[in-house]
Amino acid sequence: MNGLPRERPPGPEDPPGPEDLPGAAAAEPAALQPAPAEGDRAGNAPHWHELADALWLAAHWSRAGRIAPEPSAPVDDDRAADGPPPAAAPPPDARQRPAGDDAGSSAAPTGPALEPEGPVQVLVESPLLPATRVAGPGRPAQRSALLSRSLHRLGRRVESPHELLLDEELTAERMVADELWVPSFRPGRDRAFNLVVLVDDGPTMTVWQQETAALATAAEHSGAFRSLRTVRLDMPGAGAGAPTLRWSAAGRTADLGEIVDGRQDRMFLVVTDGLGPGWAAPAADHLLRLLGRAGPTALLHLLPPHLRRRSSLHPHDAVLESGGFGAANPGLLLRPPPSGPDPLRPLPPVGHEALVVPVLSIKPGSLAAWADLVVGERGVRRALPAVVAGSLHQGKPAPGLRPPRFPRAAHDAVRSFLRLATPSARRLAAHLAAAPFEFELIQQLRGRMMPDTTAEHLAEIFMGGLIDWDDADTGRPEFADGVRQALLATTTRTQLVRVVSTLAELPAAGE
Questions:
Q1: pLDDT category of residue 32 using cuts at 50, 70 and 90
Q2: How far apart are CA 397 and CA 234, in angstroms?
Q3: Cα 423 vs. chain centroid, distance in angstroms?
Q4: 397 φ, ψ to 5°?
């Protein structure tokens, strides 16, 4: 009994209550028991913090190949010396009920059974966690997280020239020694670098918006930089001219000197696909020399390595040696790759006016290698492609950006494209030939009909010599004369009907 009055005396037809079970006479209801103190939680059910720590530990043990020990039953210290605990007695109704009395067992419910093993145990197994490396064109968040992890290596902290912190220990020591209460200060610590991302604003860069956005998000989420600025870069044509900057899509133009700081605490990352003719002109040498002397500078080439030889920016395979922590590009040393120099395309000389610029891919490993060169000690070496600022004007513009001049040359251009392009790019080009050449419509059609393709396949089409980037009639990019007909001849009527029906369902088609 627990002191609470019953509404009526219990009868033989009443089921036994919790207080009628063996060992429950001395126990009070949970509602009347005092709440345990914070320090007494060790003997009760585990806290949610403890469960979270156990799940985290089990996951990492499983990844490391370690095997967690089997959980053992809790042992009461007071009964450890008396031998094993006695077996729990069965409930009274189980001892008094005759064998085979199925009617009685189904008519009256039994009371709550006691747990013979003591407190409830939680057995933790290996949780289902996502794989460490997640890739794919449809997973921009995971890709941005991996890039952010690589850029986090640049988050070194140095003494700040602007921030002062109170040094309590030195203040107390001087007060005891000189008996003067004069506060002492020490320099604060802050991130070492600011990052400026220069995104090429060429017409072919429209299809790389998702990749450039993932890179900017990764740089922001890495927490490695004091500040992050993204600007648009206008490269001139093959003729004379200097690159200009724009702070937004419709913003004012600015000079390169606005982002150059004499303190050399800025890093510069130039993002491009290398298809513009200006990357094989003196303007590219001027840009990279100016940025490379102002701070650590790198080129992020969006094209895969096997397509770069057909672009205006073809890097050399090399091994780069660091000039020390935060050293600008003149401190980088250019060495031949482990396989030896290419006899058909030797490394250009690095003179007084020339400097080495690493060429990166939009991959975590490439960004991590550049971070090691920037924050590493003098002599650290990493295998990275590179270009030499001062010799880019000797290159050739991408041949695939020149459209066929005559309609009868369109068939030759299409045959050349089909010979060099991948199967996915060939199918995608045939689909795009049935649609208006609008970038938003192209992206929606690609995502609906060929979701496995990426911006690399669109780049193959753009650099395939099929497009007139300044059409005389429309003033915007358009398939050259005769190219649409030649591409549509490579497909079937069934596929063409499917493309046309899909175009009618796209949002951009109704605008």
A1: very low
A2: 16
A3: 28
A4: -60, 155
Residue-wise pLDDT for 128-141, tens only, equals: 444 444 344 446 67
Q: How many CA atoms lie within 13 A of 365 on its CB side?
A: 4
Say what percent of the chain tops pLDDT 70. Answer: 74
Integer Cα distance of 152 and 225 in angstroms: 9
Paired sense of beta strands 297-301 and 355-360, if any: parallel
Tokens representing 154 are 């640049």
Q: Is residue 381 within 8 Å of residue 319, measured between CB atoms?
A: yes
State the DSSP code for 286.
H
Contacts of residue 376, defined as CB under 8 A and 6 or more positions apart, other chains included, come to 322, 325
Computed from CA positions of residues 370, 371, 372, 377, in that sequence, does the dihedral angle turn out positive or negative?
positive
Separation in Å, CA 440 to CA 200, 204, 306: 19, 13, 27
Cα separation of 187 and 174, whole Å?
18
Order of strands across the sheet that contains 228-234 = 253-254, 244-246, 228-234, 194-200, 266-272, 297-301, 355-360, 386-389
Q: Which residues lie below 8 Å from residue 28, measured CB to CB, with a gap of 6+?
A: 2
- Residue 232's closest CA among 193, 262, 276? 276
Q: How far apart are CA 325 and CA 373, in angstroms?
A: 8
User: Residues for the chain: how many in total?
Assistant: 511
Please count the other Cβ atoms lying within 10 Å of the Cβ belonging to residue 94: 11
For residue 194, give the 3-state DSSP assignment: strand
* Rounded Cα distance, 264 and 194, in Å: 9
**pTM for the whole thing?**
0.70
Q: What is the pLDDT of residues 471-493, one digit of tens each?
A: 767 778 889 889 999 999 998 99
Distances (CA, A) of 267 to 115, 182, 233, 511: 64, 39, 16, 41
